[in-house]
Amino acid sequence: MKNISVVLKNAMSLSIHDRAALAEKLLASLEQVSEKEAEHIWADEAQRRLDDYRAGRSKAVPAQEVSRKVQKLFR
Predict the structure, then answer these.
(1) pLDDT at residue 54 greater than cutoff 80
(2) At what angle do helices 16-30 and 2-12 cross, to 10 degrees?
(3) Residue-number span of the structural domain to which 11 is assigned
(4) Which residues of 30-60 are buried (b: 16+ CB within 10 A; e: fewer)?
(5) Rounded distance between C-alpha atoms, residue 50 and residue 44, angstroms
(6) How far apart are CA 68 and CA 27, in angstroms?
(7) How much is the pLDDT for 1?
(8) Do residues 30 and 41 lie in contact, with contact meaning Cβ atoms separated by under 8 Å?
(9) Which of 8, 18, 21, 57 has its CA 20 to 30 A from that of 27?
């Protein structure tokens, strides 16, 4: 993680144009993830969310409430 901090610090010192170009390239690189890599990433995320729920760092939301919120957003 220390390397990420250094890279981020350096990136933030770039001009806004260069930061935008860098962001575009980084986002594009995420689209090149293989199906197997994507499945692994989602499995890790699902496990992290389950661990957070079990540790009390997050709470469950009833599906009906989520559905109502989604429907409201898309009206």
Answers:
(1) yes
(2) 140
(3) 2-73
(4) eeeeeeeeeeeeeeeeeeeeeeeeeeeeeee
(5) 10
(6) 31
(7) 62
(8) no
(9) 57
pTM for the full model?
0.54
Any idea which residue has 């009390």 for tokens?
A: 56
Q: What count of residues does the chain have?
A: 75
**Rounded CA separation 67/75 (Å):** 12
Contact 39, 47 (CB under 8 A): no
**41: CB partners within 8 A, 6+ apart:** 33
For the chain, what is the domain count? 1
